[in-house]
Amino acid sequence: MRQKGRVGRVLRCTAWAAAYVLGLAALLPAGAWAWWQPEPEARGTEANALWARHQWVGEPHSDAEYRALGRLLQENRITDVFFHAGPFEADGTVPESKYRYARRLIAAVHKYAPGVRAQAYLGQIRVVDGKGIIDLDDPAVRERVLKTDAAFLDLGFDGIHYDFEPIYPDDHAFLALMDRTRQLTRSRGRLLSVALEQPTLLDAVQPLYKALIPRAGTIHYPPRPTEKFLRAVADRADQVAIMTYDVSLPTRSLAGWHFARHTRTTLELIGDRTTVFMGVPTYRPLVHWAEDLPVALRGIRRGIDDLKRPPKRPYGVGVYADWTTDPAEWARYRTAWLPRTTESLGG
């Protein structure tokens, strides 16, 4: 009987513990829901970016198409467009055949959207532990990347936008490439911008990921920048675009909290050092659950509300991407994000 009594007490304790844990788990979405309800006070900005499809540099377009592009950029107060112009080959080059219409595009942007900066969006899958395409650890490859960058600047691009993935916070070769690229772009009076994954929630978790999930094959631990690495990148770049999208959270309030949290922490960390664009999605794959453009924009505005003071440098959103954004999405963007005044916040 005593044994049965002990078993019963253990079962009751286990049941109470399980109920307690489940109760705590239920409080998180409930708290997020309550936090999500008030309308954000902050409005958006006029320093905003757009990732654009490769066809703009790789295929011919009519004057009417270029004029329509210019209207879209001005109407939505886009200051920077990252026109996909790569990707890099493994040796750091990009065949000229891939961007044969780039010069025509740049002239059209400057004509129909004066003041908007057209940047060459270049990147590739980074070699990590022998897997990938481009090996940035090879100095010769980095030199060819720089020559390729110079060729795009010669065409008239206003900047170079890097998107190498994955980039881990111990990637010294990437920082070395950024140092050299910054020398190049500044010598030409142009910009260097970079796309990075969303930062870590806790820097202390990164070593645990590294220990438990090997960087091998197709499985990698998350390539999240630590605070130290993000500051190092910001000190080398004129603009940093955070790829805040691709968050699989089940409710709009939790997804909104994700965007708010990353907006506040990123702007507090590097907003005085560089221009920041918080990436927002205009696609809606089913696997991304509650994530969509209105949730992202509302979350970012909530993050701005939480700032103790505005950053010293301009900031805004980066829309991903032009090929997934229809007129209805652009209308939602203008309503939910753009400031109601016409005063420009710079770029």
Describe it.
The chain is of the alpha/beta class. Helix content is 44%, strand content 14%. The chain contains eleven helices and eight strands. The protein has helices spanning 2-36, 55-58, 63-75, 102-112, 139-155, 172-187, 206-212, 227-234, 252-270, 293-305, 327-336; strands at residues 49-52, 80-84, 117-125, 159-165, 191-197, 239-243, 275-281, 315-320. β2 (80-84), α4 (102-112) and β3 (117-125) form a beta-alpha-beta unit. Mean pLDDT is 87; it is low at 15-27, 216-220 and 342-347.
**Arithmetic mean of pLDDT:** 87
Q: What is the number of domains?
A: 2
What is the CATH C level class of the largest domain, in words?
Alpha Beta
Query: Cα distance, first to last residue?
Result: 77 Å
**What's the Cα radius of gyration?**
23 Å
The number of helical segments is 11
If classified by CATH, what would the architecture of the largest domain be? Alpha-Beta Barrel
| Spatial arrangement of strands, main beta sheet | 1-2-3-4-5-6-7-8
What portion of residues is helical? 40-55%
Largest sheet: 8 strands, parallel, barrel
How does the overall form come out from the CA principal axes? globular
Structural class: alpha/beta
The CATH homology group name of the largest domain:
Glycosidases
* CATH topology term of the largest domain: TIM Barrel
Order of helices and strands: HEHHEHEHEHEHHEHEHEH
> What's the number of extended β-strand segments?
8
